[in-house]
Design brief:
Elements lengths: L2 E7 L3 H16 L3 E8 L16 E4 L12 E4 L6 H8 L6 E3 L13 H4 L5 E3 L7 H9 L5 E11 L23 H4 L2 H10 L4 E7 L11 E7 L4 E7 L1 E13 L3 E5 L4 E4 L4 E4 L4 H16 L9 H11 L4
Parallel strand pairs: 1-2, 1-4, 2-3, 4-5, 5-6, 7-10
Antiparallel strand pairs: 7-11, 8-9, 9-10, 11-12, 12-13, 13-14
Helix pairs in contact: 1-7
């Protein structure tokens, strides 16, 4: 039985999900963990359901004692603080789980990659474990795909019920918000399935009446030696859509990531898969622990995530 010493830096909605899944997964393996939480303020009490899951709470701004060491640090604070967090904790952990995007800006000192070279560091990419994309990865030959067209459209004020969307990091460019990097999942899975583009053009701007100062529309068109890409991302679509269309010589394959459906439009075949969100969020936690326990390779490194960030920001 292993007892993991874990730190969470930040505890928003996605970190709360990770925290619950870590406890559940380790318990299912006969393991346990103690969790330290680092927060920007100590004035907000934890929700009752989370209090038993956290052993100690510290102020992020305070100096970390030299002898404090962790098996894992989850970097789940606002994107604008990721670089500083990785740098601060690099001498205090055996591994990192970094929420996407890896950093807010590509204008960072790339020496950070040397700093964490010996520390297994994984950048979140949960859509890899979505049942629909797993189906595509396993059953669709990327060499057969002439063009891939992806979309993620949703209404930002509906993202976090009970929270004023204007006060979230997504609404503010200086906190790492903006649809182009908030929805970086799409570029991440496109490169996972079809490789990096060699050419890419983009339109990234604010076009709606949402009260935000970050971009709410990002449109890309690109290509590599095998496949062309089209990608549409927005914060203002009133009906949530997350889809991928694959155009081949023989068929058009429509993939609905939310409904969990793969449809071969020419052949008339429809496949229904499990699309329950926490199923793939949990699969990612399992995969991460397999990485740090040397049971599988790290397929989402900070270096790769940094290249994806460049594409998403239109700096490729």
């Amino acid at each position: 039985m292993n007892n993991y010493k874990i730190a969470f830096v930040g505890l928003g909605s996605i970190a709360t999900r990770h925290l619950k899944n870590v406890h559940a997964y380790l318990a299912s393996q006969g393991d346990s963990c103690t969790v330290d939480l680092y927060r920007s303020s100590l004035g907000r009490p934890l929700a009752d359901e989370l209090q038993p899951l956290v052993s100690n709470t510290y102020l992020f701004a305070d100096e970390i004692p030299a002898d404090r060491q962790y098996d894992v640090v989850f970097v789940t604070n606002p994107t604008s603080m990721h670089y500083e967090t990785v740098e601060r904790f690099s001498g205090h952990t055996k591994s990192f789980f970094i929420e996407k995007p890896v950093f807010y800006s590509t204008e960072v000192d790339e020496k950070i990659f040397d700093t964490i070279k010996g520390i297994p560091s994984y950048v979140a990419c949960p859509l890899h474990y979505n049942a629909v994309l797993q189906y595509v990865k396993q059953h669709v030959n990327p060499d057969d795909v002439i063009c891939a067209r992806a979309m993620s459209s949703s209404y930002l004020p509906d993202w976090r019920p009970g929270q004023d969307y204007r006060k979230t990091y997504s609404a503010h460019k200086d906190l790492g918000g903006g649809v182009s990097i908030d929805l970086i999942h799409e570029w991440d899975y496109l490169t996972w399935l079809f490789g990096m583009p060699t050419e890419c053009k983009q339109l990234i701007k604010k076009v709606s009446n949402l009260e935000i100062d970050s971009d709410d529309l990002a449109i890309y068109i690109g290509k590599n030696e095998k496949t062309s890409f089209e990608l549409h991302l927005d914060y203002f679509g009133r009906q949530t859509q997350r889809t991928l269309d694959l155009f081949t010589a023989d068929d058009t394959i429509h993939c609905d990531l939310i409904a969990g459906i793969v449809s071969y439009l020419k052949k008339g075949e429809t496949i229904k898969l499990n699309s329950e969100r926490n199923a793939f969020q949990m699969a990612e936690i399992v995969h991460f622990f397999e990485i740090i326990n040397n049971k599988t390779i790290n397929d989402s490194t900070p270096e790769h995530a940094y290249q994806v960030l460049k594409i998403a920001k239109g700096e490729f």
